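Data deposition worksheet. Section B asks for the primary sequence of the deposited chain exactly as it was used as input, without tags or linkers unless they were present during the calculation. Section C holds the resulting structure in token form. Section D is free text for depositor observations; keep each observation to a single sentence. Incomplete worksheets are returned to the depositor.
Section A, Depositor: J.P.
Section B:
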Amino acid sequence: MAAISSISVSPIPKTLNPTRTRQFSATTTSVCTSPYSLSISSTRSSKTRATDSSSGIVGQDLRRGADESIGVDTLKRFIDINLGYWNGYFYQFDYLGNLTQKVSTKLAVASYGEDELISLIQTLYVKQPPSSTSVSGHDDELEWAEYKVKETNLFTVDKYQQIGLFPDERAFALRYQTAGMLEAVLRQGVLGEDDTGEESPKNLKLPSRRPSIVCENCLYSQEMDLRARAFHIMDPKGIVDMLGIFLEERGNGDFFPPSIDISKDKASRIAPFLGKWKGHSVTKRSGVYGATIAEADTFSSLEIDGNNQLVQDISSTSRSGEGDIITTKVNWRGELSGNLAKFEGGFQMSLLPGGIYMGYPSDIAKSVAESKSFHLEFCWVESAGKRQRLVRTYDMEGLAVSSTYFYETRLPL
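Section C:
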């Protein structure tokens, strides 16, 4: 949940119970600033407004208020929803929705300091596979590699991570400068002691060393102390490099949450998202764009027509500070190819198991050249008829323009 620093030695909490722990060094990578742009505009009207821009999903006339730069109270609320021991798995997918790796992980989260000096500290443990050089019966105990995550504090969370926090909804979005943490999880969870340090190990897809965007969107379960953290990693050209999901449950001991069933309903991953959905959205913009917050009532539908084409309609209705009603409508048509939904205008959704999809532009460079906004989206249908979505929008500097949280229920047929 933050950029990764080098490893330091610390005792592992007994509640995590890994049998053996190893340290491993972080890979330092240079930062590649994203050359992405977004035109910000505000429209006030009492009439309905139609648009085919992807920003129509999240772009509202936002009411201006106090400076939104994250404060101490907000940081404390962010720390509170993260504290504890998290057991789970990391899943790596390609853009076609194919699972490429699954790794067991544990995360210990604590804090120290008070007021403006409070900090979040995290230690990630990655389960290593047996070494090819181990002797049967002598080295069969579980080994966990220990990884120190850089501290999160009042400065880093606002300036570098550009947090979009929804404490009441228990959701947040973060920006990373590198994908070093994910590379470490994959190297230690797949190669372990057999890692020779190759830049491109055989049969292992690692994230780009110079990603243009690394975005984490996190949604918490409405029913359990469970969460899903979704990572979009875009390569230097702005094309999706890999997708990652941490599915974690908070609790002590060695209990792990149910694993995502890769084989279940593989042929119908679109099914959980079909139908008509009604809900509410909350939008927060980054402090560099001024103090803005907006809420809207939302409606969306996704159907497959008689020609086997996808038809998606999205609308949102909000009220401006002057009392004007603003309605934004978006209509998309697309096609389904395997577990990839491709819409007109270049937006794609990778359909993943477990009622999850991750959305992103097929070609960010094209959006930039046309001065159009673009966004990254994470949707989780945790239970039938209820879903959460988190949308993150970026500008040409690689800064977060806004984060929008949606909670929606499916309407009866």
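Section D:
The radius of gyration is 21 Å.
The helical segments are 72-82, 154-159, 180-191, 364-369.
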